[in-house]
Structures are given as structure tokens and as C-alpha cells.
Amino acid sequence: MASVEVKVPDVGDFKDLAVIEVLVQPGDTIKPEQSLVTVESDKASMEIPSSHGGVVKELKVKLGDKVSEGSVLLVLETGNAADAPAARSAVPSPAPAGTGAGAPPAAAGAGAAPAPGAAATAPQPSPGQGASRTIEVRVPDIGEFKDVAVIELLVKPGDPVKLEQSLITVESDKASMEIPSSAAGVVKELKVALGDKVNIGDPVAVLEGAAEASPSPRPPAPGPEGAAATAAIAPAPVPAPAEGGRSGGQGQGRVLPTAALPPHEPAAPTGKLPHASPSVRKFARELGIPLGEVQGSGPKGRILQEDLQNFTKAVMRGDASTQAAAGKGAAAPGGAALGLLPWPKVDFEKFGPVERKDLSRIKKIAGPNLHRNWVMIPHVTNHDDADITELEAFRVQLNKENEKSGVKVTMLAFLIKASVAALKQFPEFNSSLDGEQIVLKGYWHIGFAADTPNGLVVPVIRDADRKGILQISAELSELAKKAREGKLTPAEMSGATFTISSLGGIGGRYFTPIINAPEVAILGVCRSRTEPVWDGGQFQPRLMLPLSLSWDHRVVDGAAAARFNAHLGAILADFRRVLL
Ligand code: CAO
Q1: I want to staple 363 with a disulfide (CB 3.0 to 4.6 A). Which of 74, 359, 377, 520 is the partner?
Q2: Spatial CA neighbour of 56 closest among 8, 92, 24
Q3: How far apart, in Å, are the Cα atoms of 516 and each of 194, 373, 376, 502?
Q4: Model's pTM, two decimal places?
């Protein structure tokens, strides 16, 4: 057994490449040429293959590290003949992010080629053009890669381009890279189309009015000896301008210095990276778009620039939210920590006709709030029944007496009043959680969920403790009317300390209402019905009201919740208790 340090091979002039994916771990048995890490600059992403086979003893890099040629990636224990160094051991196999490890390395080619980055992008004057400044830009030396697909056209006829501006993106199974312009000028003609396969020397574009370009093809930069040294595809063969801003001369053949890359935060270190070209990745980084959350619409799910634009628009409109935003404030750092699968994408039309409708404005606002509350609050729901036989009789009587007043009293008004009494008895249900403190409120504003044609809203009866049943009933019907007409003001929907969601007018037995943060509890009520209740001697027909109390287990305990429900039930069974 011998130990071998596997280092970053010649990657041209690229320096400080960020490690964005670690593809192996200690204990893994790997073969020569197997991809070890994915690194990325602002112009190319590539996989770095192993020079040897063996067992990974120690990883010397982690996500976010910066590496350059010669950086030690890991230590291998070697022993078998099969672990012998690969013929192309010192050669990087640049890789497109997203294709992951496992794709076969490019076949070794014959003959010397420029080292990575020493791309021969020298402009080729068009026949007969001489100094006319019409220049044909060709595919530079891209190592041994053959028939690489054009996946992006970054310019179009009429576009002015600068020296080194990327013209197209090409992709093999191991690398994606941008082909830069070897001259400045105006694009007269594009010689490639999306999906075309190109090779070294193929024309990419014709530029007009081109600024002075290199007088001669760039000499290949000396690479390591032998074919092994030349097998690498040149990652982003971008010639850098010499000092002073022009290419050519001494500056030729140098790849653009890698821009300082902000730390990449892949959702899962060993997962597949999103499939996107370097420029799209760069754009995503600049805007802080989590690439892993964007659905690609390009071939094989590749993420295109317009996918990023559409994603950003959807987030800005509130139609979508990033995992990080969804989890903001959660104990775990960001919703991504939930490690959820992406939302299923189903082609519904495949199964039958469908109609698409935008969510209502209220649903768009309420949805993310409900989602946050459901995910962030550890809900528990206690179900109970309250005997409201006498209370219902009183309510009916009251409505008869008040027929002319125009104010109809429903069970909800009694529930509000009874809830206030229970909240006073159990103050932690009338509180909010603020970090490690509970904020106990000295006011009792009760929200009630109102079903409207556009969705759910929660108007609030303020100071319900100071109001009688008739006043509460009058306010209820006024607020419910405004809710249905969409005329509630924000003030009428804020400040609640506890909420009641009554489905009593509709039906059902029990349900789990979602707590309306930052409140800590919510009472769900369903339709009352007459049931046989054992009174110790016989069954009596009693009108029973189903209660469902959801509460935040961070603030409230189960015993307190059971007591709250029992107390509430007792008040509803004998409403005189509200005075106690
Ligand atoms: N058991 C039996 N009958 C009940 C009842 C109960 N628990 N609660 C109400 N009723 C009766 C009322 O007495 C009324 O009967 P009449 O028509 O004979 O007078 C009828 O049901 C309709 O009442 P209502 O719903 O109009 O009035 P309300 O005060 O009970 O509720 C409001 C008002 C605005 C809360 C309600 O209309 C509403 O929107 N409820 C839906 C709430 C909701 O969607 N919750 C779900 C949230 S989670 O998605």
C-alpha cells in the first residue's frame, strides 16, 4: 500500500477555482479518471479527475475552498495494478455542472495542443478582406473534445461585441464553456445555430469593423509533456487582454483571471448540481438566485437565462418563494434545511382537459402565511364537545326578542365571549412567543375567520372583553359583510390575540385549524348536533358543539390545552360562568 496525493492538474491559467461539489468521500474506492470534485470559475465549470485509482484516505478540500493547479485534493491509498496512474493523469476533464460524475472521460487525442487557456482564438481575416476589419471568429483549441454542442447563443447579428466577450456556450458531457470573441466589432453573421456540433477551427461568427486583432494565431502555451498533458478541454478558452486592454502580444493565451466567486451553497453537497452554463451560473450568483430551485426549460432540463428571469419575476410577484424565504426565522437556517423534494411537475394536460386560473390576491397573500405558520409552529389540536343545549335555547329566545333590532345573534358571538373568559383564566393562550420570552397581552382582541368569494380573511373584534353579546353580534355581521365585499381595512384585520374559525354554519365534525401567527392558539368550531348523552342514569338528547383547539406546543402544554377546552365547555354549558 502506498499513499498518493492527487493534485489539481494543469487547468490553464485558471486560479482560485471554487470547489462547488465534492464527488467522493473517505473510504470510497475510485478508479483512475474518476471525477473527484467539480470546480467552477465565472467562465467554466469542470470536474477534476483522479490521476490514480485507490481508496480515498483523506479529503484535503471541502466545499467553497479555492484551488489552483497543484493544490492537493485528496490522499489515496493505492496498491493494485489497476490503480496505476491514468495515461492522462495530469489532465483535468472539465465538466458541466449538472451532469455529475460518471460520464466517460473524453477520449485521449493525439498530438500536442495548447494547454488549457492557450486557446487559438486568433481571428481569421476573411478571404480578400485584408485590413478591411471583417474577421471570422473560430472555435479555439478546446483540447480533445469533439463535436461539442452549441447550447447558447449569447449574441446576435447587429450586436456590438467587445474583445473576449462570450459569443456562444458549448457543452460536452464533462464541461461547459463559453467561447469568447477574439476581437471587438459588430456581429455581421453568426455561423452556428443552437444544437450545432462544433470542433476546433469551426467558424463561430463574422465580425465587422473589428478592432485590431492578434496578428497571428496564438502560439500554443507549453503544456506538460506528451498527450496526457494535452487531453484536457480548455476551460473557457478566453484570451485575456494584455495590460492596457488589448489582446495579442504578450497577453495572448492567458485565460481571464477567475473572478472572485462568492461562496457557492449547493443544497446538498453530494447531490447533482443544477444544469446550467457558466454565464447562467454567474448571472444567478449575481442576483442571488438559488439555482437549485429553478426549473430548467432547456434541453435535458438545462437552466436558461430566461428561466432565471421568469423565476425572479414569479418571486417578485409573490407567485413563488425561495426555500430560504419560506424558512426565514425558522430555528433551522433556511427552509432548504427541510431537505424537501421539489414540487412535482406534472403535465396535467396529458391526462385530460384542464383550465388554469390565477390564485386570488387573498390566496396569494394568505398561502405563504399559512404555509409558514404550519411549518414553523408545532401544532397540536385537542378535540372536545361542549353541551350548548341551554345556550342555544337562550340564543333562539334572544333572537326572537330582538327580531326588530335587525341584529341576529349566532353561536359565534357567545363563543367569542366565552373564549375571552377562558383566555383570562389561561393567559398563556392570549400571548405571543418572542424569542425566549412569552408576551402576555392585557387586551382581548378576537379574530374570526371569514369565508369570502376571494378567500379567507380574519377580521378582528377589538376589546371583546368589554363588549356585550349584542354589540359583538352587530360588529360580527358588519365585519363579515365588509369581508365579503372586500372592504376590510388592514386595521380591521390586525391585532388579534386569539382566533376562532367557525364552520358551524356549514357543517363538519372536527378539523385542525392553523394557528394565526403570532398568536399561540386558535379555536375551530363545527356544526352542533343533538346527541344522546349519558347523565348517569339515562341518555339525554343534548345539543353538542364540536370544538377543536390548535395550540403552539412551544408555549402551551397538553394539560393546559385540555383544561382550556374543559373550561370553555363549562362556560358554554352554563353561560353564567362567564361572569365568574
Ligand atoms: N352549529 C349549528 N349551527 C350553526 C353554528 C354551529 N356551530 N354556527 C352557526 N350556525 C348557524 C347559524 O345560527 C346560522 O343559522 P340560521 O341561518 O338558521 O340563522 C347559520 O349557521 C349560518 O351562520 P353564519 O355562518 O352566517 O354566521 P356565523 O356567525 O356562525 O359565522 C362567519 C359568520 C363570517 C364566521 C361565517 O359566515 C364564515 O365565514 N365561516 C367560515 C369560516 C371559515 O371558512 N373557516 C375555515 C378556516 S380554515 O380554512
Answers
A1: 359
A2: 24
A3: 51, 7, 11, 14
A4: 0.52
Which residue's CA is the closest to the ligand 1 atom numbered 6?
504
Alpha-carbon dihedral sign for residues 404, 410, 411, 412: negative
Question: CB 466: neighbour CB atoms within 10 A?
Answer: 10
Active site residue 553: yes
Ligand 1 lined by 561 (C-beta under 6 Å) = no
Computed over every residue of the chain, the mean pLDDT equals 79
Tell me which amino acid residue 571 is: I
Least confident of 273-277, 536-540, 563-567: 273-277
**Cα-to-centroid distance, 568 and ligand 1 (Å):** 19
HSE (side-chain half, CA atoms, 13 Å) at 511: 16
Q: Give, as one character, the DSSP assignment of residue 351.
A: T
Distance 502 CA to ligand 1 centre (A): 6
Q: Lowest-confidence range among 153-167, 386-400, 470-484?
A: 153-167
Cα(471) to ligand 1 centroid in Å equals 17
Residue among 108, 168, 173 nearest 137 (CA):
168
Please tell me what DSSP assigns to residue 27: T
Hunting for cell 467552477 — which residue is that? Answer: 40
Q: Measure CA 407 to chain center.
A: 50
Ligand 1 atom nearest residue 513's Cα: 48
Cα dihedral 523→525→530→535 (10° resolution):
-10
Question: Which residue out of 275, 379, 553, 567 is catalytically annotated?
Answer: 553
